[in-house]
Amino acid sequence: MLENFRLFDAGPDPLGRTWQVRFLWQQNGISIRHADTVDVKFSISTGGREELKVIALAQPDLLRLAGEFNRAVTDPWTARLAATHLKKMIESDQDMDKTLVTASYQQLVEYAG
Q1: Residue pair 17/11 in contact by the 8 Å Cβ criterion
Q2: Which DSSP string corresponds to 8-70?
Q3: Euclidean distance between CA atoms 16 and 9, whole angstroms
Q4: What value does the mean pLDDT of the chain take?
Q5: Distance (Å, rounded) from C-alpha 29 to C-alpha 57?
Q6: Residues contacting residue 69 through CB under 8 Å, at least 6 positions apart
Q7: What are the two backbone dihedrals, phi and then psi, of residue 58, each rounded to the nearest 5 degrees?
Q8: pLDDT-derived band of residue 29, with 50, 70 and 90 as boundaries?
Q9: For the chain, what is the radius of gyration of the CA atoms?
Q10: pLDDT at residue 15, as a whole number
Q11: Burial of 76 from C-beta contacts in 10 A (0-12 / 13-18 / 19+)
């Protein structure tokens, strides 16, 4: 899992590009889109191109994961999970056509381990 989720480089992507990733904000999805999630928003850029990505982490998954790893659900931990998911997205080009992406429970287990 990434230590610095606020500003980091990710890649290369399948086209050999490295993306600069900047953390923008994190908030409960219920307040903005009536979803039981924690939403983490990032700005990503490469070669003069900039995109926004929101990684949604389901609250029930976070609680289950925290219980399995015997840890508290904290803002830095959830932001690191989301940043790790975004890094994997960039490297694989999976879901890069989407602005809002929900990480699966299995993916979160992989990142937390």
Answers
A1: yes
A2: EEE---TTS--EEEEEEEEEEHHHHHS-SEEEEEEEEEETTEEEEEEEEEEHHHHHHHHHHTT
A3: 13
A4: 94
A5: 9
A6: 112
A7: -65, 130
A8: confident
A9: 13
A10: 96
A11: exposed
Helix, strand, or coil (residue 107) = helix
Which pairs with CB-CB distance under 8 Å and at least 24 residues apart come from 83-88?
83/2, 83/5, 83/8, 83/21, 83/23, 83/40, 83/42, 83/55, 84/1, 84/2, 84/111, 85/55, 85/111, 86/10, 86/21, 86/42, 86/44, 86/53, 86/55, 87/2, 87/8, 87/10, 87/21
pTM of this prediction? 0.93
Cα 47 to the chain's mean position, in Å? 22
Q: Which pLDDT score is estimated for 32? A: 67
Look at residue 73 and give its three-state secondary structure. Answer: coil
Q: Could you give phi then psi for residue 55, rounded to 5 degrees? A: -100, 120
**What are 4's two structure tokens?**
């610095």
Residue showing tokens 């790893």: 69
pLDDT at 1: 65
